[in-house]
Amino acid sequence: MRTAPCSLAGSSSLPPRASRSSPLLTAPRPTPACTSLRRLYLGAWRFVDTATLPRGASFPRLQVLVLGAIALEDRDLDFLLAASPVLEVLTIVGSVEKLRARLTSHSLRCAQFCLVLVDEVAIVDCQSLERCFIWRCPSQRYRVKIGHAPQLSILGYLEPGVHVLEIGNTVIKAGIKPSLKTTVPCVQMLALHLHFRVHNEIKMLPSFLKCFPNVETLCIQSEQTKEPTSNLSLKFWQEAGPIKCVQSRLKTLAFRDFHGDESEFAFLMFITENAQVLEKMNIVLEFRKPYKPEELASKMMALDNARWASGSKKVGYKFSRLGEGGGSV
């Protein structure tokens, strides 16, 4: 992929163009004419050695940067953020090298990482950041660190037991007690991706939820596993202790790809019996799951007849469309 030359007069957006000559091209050095760019999209690209480039605002008007299938090193991302003082949206889709993404920007409002090989995603100092999305990054285990981000209201998809969550300088572990140093009160929408039958993931879920005491919307993407290690009951949640966001803040629960497992059902019952201000619970049933009608009906009836802490039944069901399983909430 390659972009049109930066010297095109009046150009404020450079879309990618296909190139058959090379699967991975090297980006040219920034030129003075790049100062007019507002949106930049690069695909199948390898950056020049940014360590040799002069510091400063190479892209003083750039607001949107989208990178796809990129060979990007840590220092390249640092350079791009420093060179783009008004950047608001950063999206990276696919990478060919492992990346430690350390975000420092006073203008960035949205950061998105999809299918990116990462060792770490760290929000170091982003005073304007409102949304941060991490989706299907293939690394086995990596760190997600939240530093200074006072405007962060939407965060996902965290993976308890897979992501090592660090808030400030504190690593969140199972059973940790919430404190000012281990909570992010500004987050109002939280999305989680997990396997309900993998013990190491579920045992971290209460601790993750306790880190975000003001969550009003909780989105759950449930995945099946070929090697289940547990099937936790409602007793596990009762012993986990009070979770502030569930008890007094949670208004909407979106649960996608319900497979009918006991661990999933126990979690839904916990929400039902503890979420005092819940307004709606939307459950999407996995279309490809071979449900036994009597088992499914039994679980649905149990939810309907549960002691709803909010005062009345708030649950609704639908089937995912064929081929839609595994998508986002």
UniProtKB/TrEMBL annotation:
User: Which Gene3D superfamilies does its entry note?
Assistant: Ribonuclease Inhibitor
Instruction: Kindly give the InterPro entries that the UniProt entry links to this protein.
Output: F-box_dom-containing (IPR055302), FBD (IPR006566), LRR_dom_sf (IPR032675), LRR_FXL15/At3g58940/PEG3-like (IPR055411)
Pfam families documented for this protein:
FBD, LRR_At5g56370
Q: Where is the F-box/LRR-repeat protein 15/At3g58940/PEG3-like LRR domain?
A: 23-220
Domain FBD span(s) in chain numbering: 238-283
Q: Positions of the region Disordered?
A: 1-30
Composition-biased stretches (Low complexity): 7-25
Specify the protein name: FBD domain-containing protein
Organism of origin is: Miscanthus lutarioriparius
